[in-house]
Amino acid sequence: NAGVMQNPRHLVRRRGQEARLRCSPMKGHSHVYWYRQLPEEGLKFMVYLQKENIIDESGMPKERFSAEFPKEGPSILRIQQVVRGDSAAYFCASSPSGGSDTIYFGEGSWLTVV
Amino acid sequence: GEDVEQSLFLSVREGDSSVINCTYTDSSSTYLYWYKQEPGAGLQLLTYIFSNMDMKQDQRLTVLLNKKDKHLSLRIADTQTGDSAIYFCAEFLLRGYQKVTFGIGTKLQVIP
Fold it and tell me: What mean pLDDT is reported for chain B?
């Protein structure tokens, strides 16, 4: 009964490259959330997705960031043309439904832009 | 609006009790969580409390909730060096789906 799996755990990208972060929710979970933790800060909500639908992307930067949760496969958070300010830990969480009482977090993906 | 505030730093001696405080603004919160994060690691859910409860105890952890003042606290009894970490308070709002708002985190330092 694996938990929320994120990969890669650590990713280094040069400025201008693309970063792709993957999240496999817990078995039976069809709701995925992405959060970002900037250095020395708390977690900030980015986006909430259900299978094939983006429900709330109010926390996503307007440019360069996108997220998807296809019918098959993991959820992907994609950052195009990365800049140093994108360096952060990106956490994925999942829940079985939108109204359940707990969401479960993955171990996070640490992105470093050099 | 949704806002969760915590003090940034707390230092205690090993064996003493630690109390980490948190205030939140949205009275429609349904659950309030405490997470622990060790350096370079993910979030570990420590405990959570329903908004209709005043207190919850789980071994060394005691959570107190004052809904009137929108104040939440986490007490760790007999604090150990392994408790050194950042502790995040988070409020859970049901807006058709769960939306979790985190505080900035309190760094707990345990002095041997």
Answer: 90
Average pLDDT over residues A52-66: 93
Per-residue pLDDT at A41: 79
Q: Which of B99, B106, B107 best tests the A interface by mutation, with the highest count of A CBs <10 A? A: B99
Quick check: B97 and A91 CB within 8 A? no
Check pLDDT > 70 for residue B99: yes
Contact indicator for A28, A92 with CB cutoff of 8 Å:
no
**Sequence-ordered list of residues with C-beta below 8 angstroms from that of B48, at least 6 positions apart, any chain:** A102, B31, B32, B33, B34, B63, B92
Asked if B42 and A55 come within 8 Å (Cβ–Cβ), the reply is: no
What is the mean pLDDT of the segment spanning A79-89? 96
Q: Assess B7–A contact: CB distance below 8 Å, yes or no.
A: no
Residue B32 has a CB neighbour count (10 Å cut-off) of 25
Could you say which of B4, B43, B105 has the minimum Cβ distance to residue A91? Answer: B43
